[in-house]
């Protein structure tokens, strides 16, 4: 009799759902389990090198903004990476003339950092580039023969190096080792269809302005907690 009861209990356990023992699988560059509730992390293209997220102590809107350790399409801090027209995913694109509407920010399928890196990565907002200039000390630096700007967080003294890779206007690659030019993800609604970007050079300083969306510039991705 005991043997029959034991067999019955074993069969019942095999038939019960085992959802409480379900295992999560983790994406290679995501901080939360894939398949978890509420997850909206993108997979990336699986080819573009994924940088480290560097905490410079830059805070925007109460959120800590972390910066990629190298440019989109690069694999080390001194490499320029991809030169993309605003809103394009390939270096041969003409640029994206975003329709005027409720949003001034690129849609996710036009944000090269989201598409290529996935995870929490995206292109920086205009105010995040402004915060980088405001909440960091910066000075010209070199890695090997590549000149650029080193941004050092005022709060924690962590730093990143942004190479002065110039930009590409038409077919001409201009101001290498003299000028850094980095896209934001936002269009300028006043000077439409220009888009905001950050520039720096040794002679004239650094600021966030808007410019021709068809110019090909570098991208330094960000993520927020």
Account of the protein in words:
The structure is a single chain. By secondary structure, this protein is an alpha+beta fold. The chain has one domain (3-224). It is 13% helix and 33% strand. It contains three helices and 15 strands. The protein has helices at residues 2-15, 112-117, 126-135; strands at 25-26, 33-34, 53-60, 63-68, 84-85, 136-143, 146-153, 159-163, 167-169, 172-174, 179-187, 195-201, 205-211, 216-217, 222-224. The strands form six sheets. A three-stranded antiparallel β-sheet has the order 3-4-15, with helices on one face. The protein has a three-stranded antiparallel β-sheet with strand order 6-7-8. Strands 11-12-13 form a three-stranded antiparallel β-sheet, covered by helices on one side. A hairpin with a 2-residue loop joins β6 and β7. The model is unreliable at 1-39 (pLDDT under 50).
Fill in the keyword field for this structure.
three-stranded antiparallel beta sheet, alpha+beta, disordered N terminus
Mean pLDDT metric: 85
Shape: globular
Distinct helical segment count: 3
Strand content: 25-35%
Q: Which strand order do you get reading across the main beta sheet?
A: 3-4-15
